[in-house]
Design goal:
The structure holds two protein chains of two kinds. By secondary structure, chain A is α/β, with parallel strands linked by helices. Chain A is built from nine helices and 15 strands. Chain A folds into two domains: 34-253, Rossmann fold (3-Layer(aba) Sandwich); 262-328, no CATH class. In chain A, helix 1 (8-28) crosses helix 6 (255-270). The chains are: A alpha/beta, B alpha+beta.
């Protein structure tokens, strides 16, 4: 076997192949990031996106008509910019519905920006009696009757926290059972001194012409949880014919996800009609050229064709030239 | 394997290694970059038993309610227990326990109800009538006892499965047993009371009521007599008088057991009421006489029923008022001068005008949704005038606006476009806010009637249909918001230009080109040599391009004759040296032609004779090639 020498062409070919394969893989394989709208696995929001018809928003409310829209901020890991907070306030004041879902407490900054004396505690709330499979997934059966909770008897949560409400204008819509407790030391067991429920987990506050709905859990609408309890119905009530948007700018982005986004962006550009039709035309031109050049029309005599165009030319000479050309190749 | 094939396989392997490494890198980065969020996969979570202490609390709660006789609370507590998480393998045990406890609860509830009814009959001296009820109660109690026996074993199973404290569970079960025993005891007591009543003397009570027809709120006179089995009147006994089951008066019997009492009827707006007298023996009488209930006398009540008519109400508009006109009338002049009108959670008192007419203006809140809402008119209860309450449904609706929007069929990206429109309702003018959502941007216009929106599609938008949404929100609450959607074709001239220009260029070049044969034919002098282009052409002095062209045509002929190709790397002389031996006699022709072409290209001074000679030699060469 001959030694494989370094070649710029080989390197370029390898890099190009690698890039193409990685791009294809990242675009074709579904993402596994938490809350991703295309993630079909247990921790994704594909089902949520399908049911609510949710569109992604990136730290903007441009193109969102407040009174006809609901914006979801789910499991934020990044604080919103002041400009964006102001935009959200305007959105709610003008009649929009903002749904905040957080168990970590990151959303507290946003809540205080709205002037609400409500915050997410941050400690995990477990229930030792009413739950799904494990105490970490409490089942909420104390649901107050309201338009939001119509036909919702149970809400399934996944390691939620609780809401601390010191604002009388905030209406509690769902609370945990009296057997629930706050896991202060994070051992997922009840220890002495850990307070028992009931704790509020869902609340609603009017703000301007709109309203803010706060959940102390971000996992309600995950693919693995939306089918439990009345979560699906709750989502339907939340959206109720309005346009749903989900803010994707509040999640820290991973490198593969950024790469995927870039690949899809490029794909979107190339799927534009001008590129598609241009590409089709180019392909047709190239194929036609290649066929024409490589295979002179079979069955049609080339010399005869030329003589039709130039009747004054010498047929014998043309045949001789064709022969000579074929020899030259 | 050929060396070229080995090389190819080596290339493929290298590419595969690089691709594999890239994918591994991607896969390696994927999980590490994922942020940690507090969720668990429900399917991956290990199943957990509910807390023993808490289950015991629920268990005790249900039992305590049942023991306390609060059967509804028992049901509610069992429902709560049903909402608790029960692992699949224990579901049967819990369901069996819940079913048995619920059955016991229902049976005991029925038994208690039957015993209460039987007791009431015995109190009226109708012990015989109470007997079937007690029989039914005894059957139910026996069933409850059997269920209780099953429940005991179900509780034991439940306690073992959930590790509940057995002694506490048994204690609760024992307490329930005592409840059943208590009901047995009561049943026996009532049976004994019936038996005892058999030994007592019957007592009888008869009444007469006058008048049999009376205005509501009026006075009736009840006369009656209480007597024993031998017909002897029982004097000095207390007799109670009931109107429709409610005790209204009592009286003590006089000699011969007679009594007479006047009763002020309450204002009851019913056509008939039932009057009955009852005697419940007290003290020593209870050892001598059975209780007695008189005959029931139906007394007809008269009262005035007002009539209410309301003029038809057209649909109400949010944010606007509407008028309700009505009339309240009765056979006699009305003693009051007002009615109460309730509309959308607000009530107001409306004064009646002459003849019982009323006229009220009601306001419909701005934010009320469209639909049918109740409007209630109530007249008060006033002595013999019965109250009246009538509910009408009023349709609340908003007026539909007419919107005309002139949307451009096509919008050019990067160039401003205008969307004009008009909003109106039967010639009325009012303020509207028009919002257009198009390609992620919101364009807003506030106007009075006509509106105009200036669109500017950014150049980053590619060609294609883009959806738009127009929301028209009128400032007046009685008009309906309008939303409509559609799509506009956006053309991005810049992005369209690039691919189409490129393809057009290719097509142009292709169509303009000629076949090789045509080119060679032209080169061979059949046509004017102006189509074959060579690189040297450009370096030839003006007027001598044809000579250079001729040389390249000769090269084609020579290459055909000799199979020696003219490569870009060899000079004219090198090519001549390579082909001359193979050309034989006609090699001279090509030599002359080469010399002439060289001169044309490099020296730029060439005689007419040399040019003539070059032409001649090319002709010879061409003929020679044809012959060959």
């Amino acid at each position: 076997m001959p030694a494989l020498r370094f070649s710029l062409e080989l390197l370029a070919l390898s890099v190009a192949s690698a890039l193409l394969t990685v791009s294809l893989a990242s675009a074709l394989f579904p993402p596994t990031e938490e809350f991703h709208l295309s993630n079909p696995y247990w921790n994704g929001l594909e089902e949520f996106s399908r049911i609510a018809g949710a569109k992604a928003l990136e730290a903007t409310v441009d193109g969102v008509v407040p009174e006809k829209s609901v914006i979801f901020i789910v499991g934020p890991s990044i604080n919103c910019s002041q400009t964006y907070v102001e935009a959200l306030k305007t959105f709610v004041l003008d009649g929009g519905t903002l749904v905040l879902m957080d168990e970590s407490g990151v959303a507290n900054v946003l809540l205080s920006s709205f002037g609400l004396d409500v915050y997410v505690d941050g400690h995990a709330m477990l229930d030792a009696v009413f739950y799904h499979r494990s105490w970490k997934m409490p089942k909420i059966i104390n649901v107050v009757n309201s338009s939001l909770t119509a036909d919702v008897e149970e809400i399934a949560l996944n390691i939620p926290s609780i809401l601390r409400i010191n604002d009388s204008s905030v209406k509690v819509l769902a609370s945990s059972s009296s057997f629930s407790f706050l896991d202060l030391n994070g051992d997922f067991e009840h220890e002495d001194g850990e307070p028992f429920g009931p704790f509020p987990v869902l609340a609603e506050a009017a703000y301007g012409r709109g309203r803010i709905i706060v959940f102390s859990d971000s996992s309600l609408f995950l693919n693995s949880f939306i089918g439990l309890g009345g979560n699906r119905k709750l989502l339907e009530n939340l959206v109720s014919g309005k346009a749903a948007f989900i803010d994707v700018s509040v999640w820290s982005t991973s490198l593969p996800l950024s790469y995927r986004k870039a690949v899809l962006r490029v794909y979107n550009v190339f799927s534009a009609p001008e590129f598609k039709s241009g590409l089709a035309l180019l392909t047709v031109t190239v194929i036609y050229t290649l066929i024409y050049r490589r295979k002179p029309s079979q069955g049609i005599d080339e010399v005869e064709e030329l003589l039709k165009r130039h009747p004054d030319w010498d047929k014998r000479l043309l045949e001789a030239l064709r022969e000579a050309r074929e020899k030259v190749g | 394997m050929k060396p070229s094939a080995k090389r190819l396989s080596a290339i493929i392997m290298t590419v595969m290694v690089i691709v594999f490494l890239s994918l591994s890198l991607l896969a390696g980065l994927w999980p590490t970059m994922t942020p940690t969020v507090r969720h668990v996969d429900p399917k991956a979570e290990a199943e957990q038993l509910p807390s023993t202490n808490f289950v015991m609390v629920l268990f005790s709660g249900a039992f305590d309610s049942l023991i306390g006789g609060d059967y509804n609370a028992t049901y509610e507590k069992l429902k709560i227990l049903g909402a608790a998480y029960i692992p699949e393998k224990y579901k049967f045990i819990v369901e069996r326990f819940s079913r048995l406890l619920n059955d016991t609860s229902k049976l005991l509830n029925d038994v208690e109800d039957l015993l209460d009814r039987a007791e009431a009959l015995i109190d009226l001296g109708k012990g015989e009538n109470a007997k079937p009820l007690l029989q039914e109660a005894s059957v139910k109690l026996a069933t409850a006892n059997i269920t209780y026996t099953e429940l005991r074993s179900a509780c034991e199973e439940l306690a073992k499965s959930f590790r509940l404290p057995l002694s506490e569970v048994r204690e609760k079960v024992e307490q329930l047993g005592k409840v059943i025993e208590g009901l047995y005891a009561r049943l026996i007591q009532l049976l004994q009371a019936i038996d005892k009543q058999r030994t007592l003397e019957d007592s009888f009570l008869t009444i007469e009521v006058k008048p049999m027809e009376v205005w509501t709120g009026g006075i009736i006179e009840v006369k009656g007599r209480l007597y024993g089995a031998n017909g002897r009147g029982l004097a000095g006994r207390n007799v109670q008088l009931y109107i429709d089951g409610a005790k209204l008066a009592e009286n003590v019997t006089l000699e011969e057991g007679l009594f007479e009492v006047q009763i002020h009827l309450p204002y009851i707006y019913k056509s008939r009421v039932a009057v009955q007298a009852r005697f419940t023996p007290q003290g020593l009488d209870s050892q001598t006489y059975k209780p007695a209930a008189s005959n029931i006398v139906q007394v007809s009540l008269s009262y005035i029923e007002p009539r209410l008519t309301v003029e038809p109400i057209e649909a109400a508009l949010p944010g606007k008022t509407f008028t309700v006109k009505g009339l309240v009338e009765a056979e006699e002049p009305l003693p009051y001068n007002y009615v109460k009108v309730s509309w959308t959670l607000h009530s107001l008192t409306v004064n009646l005008q002459g003849g019982g007419h009323f006229n009220v203006t009601l306001y419909t809140p701005e934010d009320v949704a469209e639909g049918n809402y109740p409007l209630t008119v109530e007249t008060p209860a006033w002595k013999v005038y019965a109250p009246l309450r009538k509910t009408f449904y009023v349709k609340v609706q908003r007026l539909s606006l007419s919107v005309q929007a002139c949307l451009p069929f096509t919008v050019l990206a990067g160039f401003p476009s205008t969307l004009n429109g008009k909003v109106f309702y039967e010639g009325e003018q009012f303020n509207v806010t028009v919002k257009l959502v198009f390609i992620g941007q919101t364009y807003t216009a506030s106007s009075r009637g006509e509106f105009s929106l200036n669109l500017l599609v950014p150049l980053t938008v590619l060609t294609g249909y883009q959806t738009y949404e127009i929301h028209v929100s009128p400032s007046l609450p009685w008009y309906k918001s309008v939303t409509f959607k559609g799509s506009i074709f956006v053309v991005n001239p810049f992005t369209v230009m690039f691919p189409f220009g490129f393809v057009s260029f290719l097509a142009f070049r292709f169509l303009k080109g000629k076949s090789k044969l045509e080119a060679v034919a032209e080169a061979s002098g059949t046509v004017e040599s102006e189509s074959l282009v060579s690189e040297g052409w450009r370096f030839a002095p003006s007027g001598l391009e044809w000579l250079v062209d001729l040389y390249w045509q000769a090269v084609v002929l020579v290459a055909g004759l000799t199979d020696v190709e003219m490569k870009p790397s060899i000079t004219m002389r090198e090519y001549l040296a390579a082909v001359k031996p193979k050309l034989g006699d006609i090699g001279v022709c090509f030599e002359v032609l080469t010399a002439a072409a060289e001169k044309a290209l490099y020296s730029k001074t060439i005689s007419a004779k040399e040019l003539e000679s070059a032409k001649k030699e090319f002709e010879e060469l061409r003929l020679a090639s044809v012959k060959v």
